[in-house]
Every structure is written in structure tokens, then in C-alpha cells.
Amino acid sequence: MNSRLLSIIRKEFIHILRDPRTLAIMFVIPIVQLILLGYAATTDIRRLNTAVYDADRTMQSRQLIEAYRASDYFRITYNVNSEREIAELLDRGDARAGIIIPAGYGDNLAKGKTAQVAFLIDGSDPAVANTAFAASQSVGQAHNIQILQRRLGVDVTQLGGIEIRPRVWYNPELRSSNYMIPAVMGMILQFLTTLFTALAIVREREQGTIEQLVVTPIKAWELVVGKVVPYIGIAFFDLLEVLFLGVLLFDVPIRGSIPLLLALALLFLLTTLGMGLFVSSAARTQQEAMFLAFLTVLPSIFLAGFFFPIEAMPAWLQAISYFVPLRYMLIIFRGIILKGVGLPTLMESVLALAILGALIFTAASLRFRKSLE
Hints:
Blueprint: H1 3-17, H2 20-40, E1 48-54, H3 59-70, E2 74-80, H4 83-92, E3 97-101, H5 105-110, E4 114-122, H6 126-149, E5 161-169, H7 176-207, H8 209-214, H9 220-250, H10 258-282, H11 286-303, H12 315-321, H13 325-339, H14 343-372
Parallel strand pairs: 1-2, 1-3, 4-5
Antiparallel strand pairs: 3-4
Helix pairs in contact: 2-11, 7-9, 7-10, 7-11, 7-13, 9-10, 10-11, 10-13, 10-14, 13-14
């Protein structure tokens, strides 16, 4: 290896070592990817939030509930007093499944008759719904065998048992496109506005034109708004484009209000634009801005329930996901498009998104203004 090549290699190492931000990003990204892919990227569906309406309230019904609780597939999170409450929990996405045990369940078992149990499943996520569908039947069959084993000696024709009847809501065909298209819309909004807002401002700084804008009579907030408004328009165009193509090419049903969807998407843009401003105030070059933007987008995708259900993640990752705005936007998009729910049902997610958006955008604007001074 000649001396010139060694000199170039040495020079490049010196450049890397003198740029601690880029160096940190290069080492942090693999660690973040490893943690997210190792913990969040799991296809093992466990501990799904489940609501139970026990209209029978007998020892037999309690044994059935315990069988589902012990299976590790379902976490009995809600005990409700009506079928309507289960429907509301499924609409909001608070529960992924619902068990309805009718009155007379215990009497039917005692008489050797078939006792039917309704099992409702949120089909907006096909991967979760398929697992819940299979688990609901397997747990019911296992419990049914236990019941029948206690009746040894009884004529087979007189054996009743349990009949679990699963029913998938919102996406009965379990089509993955119905689940993915609303998620893609949320990802596009975050990716485009965060990345291109950051790049546009850093480009001005790299070219030296940001200083020319600062010395003009224009105010700091006018500069911020002027830089981000074009990207709001682009993001909305892309949002409508994906929505149109989703309906045209993939037959995604839109059951809710499109004006409500667009209004709440504008609320979500507060957070994504704030992230873009944060990145622009921290990055010195466009390349660095791109790395930082990816560093913010990547965790959001994994922790928001984009690919994998949040319930299947470790508890500490679930806690972190509450601070990810995309989590609430995906609930809103899937709720409006697939479930056709309105603002009252989505109020918890809307309030969380509004609070996070206001905090992130305000803090980012103050930091960006300070970086101009």
C-alpha cells in the first residue's frame, strides 16, 4: 500500500474523528436498530387486551375466563356490563378482542347441552386477528375437553360442551392492505415533513442564504412559518394521493369522515414539523440532517404499531411508545378509515396528539429561533 493511499485513509479518519456528531450517529443507529428489531419486531402475538362481558356470572363462566387468561394470548383488561361497552372498546382500539358469555351458559353445561360463547375480534390488523382467531378456538377446545373429561361414563350423544363462535369485525377478509394503507399514510406525513423541512433549512445554512434572511425585517416566526407551509401542502397532496390509490388499487374501504381525517392530519403535522425544526437546529450539513431525520423516523415506525402490535412488545417499550406521536395518528387513521368512528371515540388519541404536538413544535421553534441568533 503506497504512502499516498495511506495519507488519504489517515486524512479521512481524522475528518471522521473531528466530527463527533456524525461519529455518534454512525454508532448509535446500529444500536437503535438492534434494540427495535430485537424487541419490537416480533411476530409472537401475546397478551392482547381483551374485554369480557359475563352475563352468566357462574362458576363455569369464571372457569372459562380463567382458561383464556391463563393462555397468555389474552390479557383480560376489561370486565364490562354490556355488549355495547365491548363494541366501544373495540372501536377505540383499547381492546383487540371481546368475549361474550350469555346468560344460561352454566345451566346448558350442567344439562349436557352445547353452550355457545361469542368471541369478537378486531380485524383491522390481520396478523393479530389471525392469531386471536386461532387462539380463541384452541383455548375453547382445550377447556371443552377438560369439561368432557369430568363426564366420563356419560353417553357420548349426551355430551354437550362449549362452542366458541369467533367473529371478525372491521376487516372480515383479514386483508393486509386494509391495515397497511392507513399506516403508510401516517408514515408519509411524518417522513416527508420531518426530512424535507430539515433539509430545506439546513440547505439555506450551508449556502449562506439563511444569514441574508435573518438580517431582513422578516420576523423569526414568519421565517419558520414561511419555510414549513409549502411542505404542509406537499404532505396533504401525498396524503390524498395515497388515499385515492388505496381505494382505487387495493379497494380499501373508507367508512369515516374524510374532512375529519384531514383536520386531524393537520394536527399531526405540528409534531412532524417540530421534529424537522429540531433536526435543522442541530444539523450542520444536509447529510447530517438526513441521518438525524432517519434517527427520529425509525423508532416511530417500530414503536407506533406500524408493523407489529404494541401489546407484543416489552413493558418498557410500551411505556416509551406513549411519547411517540405516530402511535396516536395510526389509531386515528385506522379508526376513521376502517372502523368509521367519529371524534368522540378518538378523543383520547386526539388530546394526546395535541399535547405532544404543541410541546414539540413550541420547543423546536424556540430552539430554532435561538440558533438563528
